[in-house]
């Protein structure tokens, strides 16, 4: 008999330049440098018998990201297993733009959500870190992580996702 495969869908949301594509490329072991993402990318990753569909939602501005999220809903239905809100830990604008995106996300059934403050390495270099604790609570995120998609171990980056599914 055939076993039904387990499938989980993860959607990355955040304005342009926060490192969503870089994070995903590191998970997949891709060495190429990411460019501006123009259309939604769907990547497949196997993890302990579970098929992860990772959706990279493009858009430079919150309204563009929200529209692309709506397209993802039309493609995958409202059965999304995890929403990853991402912002740059070195840029407060990217954190607060998540509220505009959340207005669209909140129109659909509740999902598991996490918040990732990416570019921790850049924030440390600049001498300040944009903390996301209050925003994580307001968005209903289960967890908040500070990462460097460029420098952190890919296995650690993956754990941030799978432990919240």
TrEMBL record:
InterPro entries, alphabetized: GTP-bd, P-loop_NTPase
Organism name: Pyrobaculum aerophilum
GO molecular function, one term: GTP binding
Alphabetized SUPFAM superfamilies for the sequence: P-loop containing nucleoside triphosphate hydrolases
Leader sequence segment: none
G domain: residues covered: 10-92
Pfam families: MMR_HSR1
UniProt-recorded name of the protein: Miro domain-containing protein
